[in-house]
Amino acid sequence: MASTNNMHGPKTLRRRLPGVTLKPGSVKQARQEAGLSLAQVGKGHVTAPAIYLIETGRTRPSLPTLEHIAHRTGKPVEFFLANPGGTIDESQAMVAELEAMVADGRYNEAIELGRSLLDLGSSAYRLGRIRYFVGLAHLQVGQPDRAVDLLAEARAHFEATNDGVMLAECLGAEASLAYMIQRPDALVLAEKALSVCRSLKPVPTPTEARLLGIVAGAHVANLEWDKAIDFYEASIEAAGSYFDLRRLAKMYSGLSFAYHELGQIDVAARYASRSVALLDVLRDSVSLARSENNLGLILIARGELSAAREHLDRSLELSEASELEVGRSHVLLSLCELCLEEGNLEQAREFAGEALALAGRLHEGPNVAEAHMWLGRIADRQGNHETTDHEFAQAIHCLEQLGTNERLFRCHGTYAEILERRGDVARAYLHMKKALQATRPGLLQSQQEDQQEHATTA
């Protein structure tokens, strides 16, 4: 009869994570201050006897276990750590390499190295920096959903250790994330980061320059073009010789976008071309996709449709090759605009529909509204008044929910022009009034109060 000892196959060996050296008595102190039992501290992760062994110093917890204890007792991880005493450990050089990878644009390598570092017990002293750089790398490859928790945990680490420089850098990264996913708090976070930076003595110049650029990007998101240009130029000036080419290329891209919106097409084209040239050399596919899109839009404005298609097609190819989802709806909407200019209404509608689906899935509210506006324009060109009205109603509703006054102003204004051409003057006038109200909310109310007062005294 065959032996049954191995009937279930060999057991899978789990790699034991290295332990973290703790300050004696810290776990017991934290547990008692939180009013928890051994079992309550370990709940959902380890047993009560395991917590007892950690408390008495008979065993060292792994980093995940220590983070669980910190979470349950409401203490930062730093509360429990023994003073490293300036000793060099196995992770120190690797964290320096992680930082260098991000600086060199080797983002996928940085993510892989950073994830391995998070398993090392000796990394506990550098958790904030590791998470910050891994989160930053995820942002650069267009994966904001994977960066959210990393950056939030990094910020908590820097707050606990009173590391002002890294706290400012982390807040800046969170502002970039908010800008990328079209969250309304991007400017607030960017300004907070800059405030933290400028409160330091001396003010770290490279950090200040980076944050000025992030504030500029937040103003772009809010369609505040003059402010964006001011901050981009201040960022370039503050950086001086500290500026790296990758960041300078992104500044040029932002400047091109702002100048385009202000109608200064030649200046915009000059900055966009510089950005594309630099990013091409640096082989930064994600940033290059965005800059190619900007240049394509500028060429549409100049009537150079054939050249615009080359750049927009390349932008889409780069987005797909780098698996960039966040922001790809921008490119699809640009291609929609190009097709509409070319008179290819059916192709324009397909691009707008694809952009709408993608922006909706990724919760990119402003792009959802923009897609509805383009679908409304296309329906107007096709003479389909009912669809036009429906699409603009959807866009207006979306923008009202988001509370974005400048975009709402544009939407009402565009729809008013369509209604006026249609001969519906009364509704055109109504939407022009709403456009005015979107940019100056108190104006119409003031006018109505003046009219009522005049009627009363007449």
Topology:
Elements: H1 26-34, H2 38-42, H3 48-55, H4 63-73, H5 92-103, H6 107-117, H7 127-140, H8 144-160, H9 164-180, H10 186-198, H11 205-221, H12 225-239, H13 245-261, H14 265-282, H15 285-301, H16 305-321, H17 328-342, H18 345-361, H19 365-381, H20 385-402, H21 405-422, H22 425-439, H23 441-457
Helix pairs in contact: 1-4, 5-6, 5-7, 6-7, 7-8, 7-9, 8-9, 9-10, 9-11, 10-11, 11-12, 11-13, 12-13, 13-14, 13-15, 14-15, 15-16, 15-17, 16-17, 17-18, 17-19, 18-19, 19-20, 20-21, 21-22, 22-23
Helix proportion of residues, in percent?
over 70%
Report Rg. 27 Å
Give a quick account of the main beta sheet: strands, pairing sense, barrel closure.
none
- What's the count of strands? 0
Main features:
458 residues, 434 Repressor (Amino-terminal Domain), Serine Threonine Protein Phosphatase 5, Tetratricopeptide repeat, 23 helices, 73% helix
Provide structural commentary.
The chain contains 23 helices and no strands. By secondary structure, it is mainly α. Among the domains are: 26-79, 434 Repressor (Amino-terminal Domain) (Orthogonal Bundle); 163-243, Serine Threonine Protein Phosphatase 5, Tetratricopeptide repeat (Alpha Horseshoe). Mean pLDDT is 84; it is low at 1-15, 443-451 and 453-458.
Short description:
The protein is built from 23 helices and no strands. It has helices spanning 26-34, 38-42, 48-55, 63-73, 92-103, 107-117, 127-140, 144-160, 164-180, 186-198, 205-221, 225-239, 245-261, 265-282, 285-301, 305-321, 328-342, 345-361, 365-381, 385-402, 405-422, 425-439, 441-457. Mean pLDDT is 84; it is low at 1-15, 443-451 and 453-458.
